[in-house]
Amino acid sequence: MWKQFLNKLPRKSQKSDRDSARNPNSGSGSGRAGSGGSAAKRAAVFPASVIAGIEPLLAFKDVSNSEKMNLFISKLSLCCVVFDFTDPTKNVQENELKHATLLELVDFVSENPPKFSEPAILASCKMCSINLFRVFPPKCRSRSTGSGENENDDEPTFDPAWSHLQLVYEFLLKFVTSSSLEVKTAKKYVNNDFIFRIIDLLESDDPRERDCLKAILHRIYGKFMIHRPFIRKCISNVFYKFVFEVEKHNGIAELLEIFGSVITGFALPLKEEHKVFFWRALIPLHKPKSLGVYFQQLSYCVNQYVEKEPKLASHLIQGLLKYWPITNSQKEVMFLGEVEEILEVISINEFQKVMVPLFRRIRHCINSYHFQVAERALFLWNNDQILSLVAHNRQVILPIVFPALEANAQNHWNQAILNLTMNVRKVLTEMDDALASACISSNQEQQEKASSSVEKRKQVWEHLENAASLHPMMARNTAVLVTH
User: GO molecular-function annotation terms (predicted)?
Assistant: First the structure.
């Protein structure tokens, strides 16, 4: 089919050529499947009545306005052929012709065309589906088996067909956002299956492709209100699978970016559906090892929720404590940063619900031998809002925190941490000198008791060792009767 068009430039094709274009039984373009199967598929994509006998190589400016939509459909049919880009020397002319045709289509939908007819919408969706929807190499769908940190540094895989894919994505974006596209008609073709496969493409290893998909899915969500619940459900399912099954997905950051803008449009009070998504999807996203890849987007989403519904702040802190990392220091630093953001907006009542377990965790972070974790925990006390919360609840919080400060002052190896510890100790002492003195005295008593307990245990062991040395060694195989 493509060679026929190339041989006929620049004159129009005859009727037999048009029939061949509509029902290609042979051609030099090779698709992802066998050539025979691809030809049969392309012939079945568009009925003859849809293409309406228009030569697809004509320019839009060379036809009347009444014929432009038919020419548009004809060009879309031409672009339904998918070439093999693994061999750059193969189908060079055909690739260039398809590239030029895609550029024409992008320009056409960008220049405020007439209202798209239903056949034009069908043809557009078919062309995008044939070119975009594909199976990725196994690497993109394999289960995470490594340490987590090194996997994020893997080199992305770029599709060799990107020169065509980029134009198809640009066409789809402009097509979806065009004022000439009526939602009432388009929703039959931009349907649940189409949207599901768009979301599935976000597993692509190519960041350029994920950026295009993010923009398109965002526009679809904004324009097709009827599909909004389905899109939210699909995103939830992706998150569930990522957290609880595979822990490998390249598009989590992009999906969170989309959802961050969606959250801003939620009406108040929040629906139960949105709260369930917060509890069951967003909070568990703190669990995977690859949190650093999408932490910024996740933090923005949860903060948007807390701004919309302040009562969710305590639930968020409880979730963070549940998934708090024990052996991953970098994640611990990220968690402490998120805790600070939450404490800046939390109400006093919600804070009191979680302050005891929260500051017990902060106490452990202050005593961390990883200086970045200890430093980030001590920096919390530079925040005036946090100091205000602590001051209102100092009778509970100071006895929790002071033992950690005293331990740091006596034993921590890092000089910067020692200096920060002394500064925090000074701030808390100025907050309530009497309470601080009582905490210090109580801590000293506890240390003395601990030392005394250690000494007693040591004396008991020495007594047992001395008693054992006074008796002769028993045979190794001699049975011993132990009486209670």
Answer: protein phosphatase regulator activity
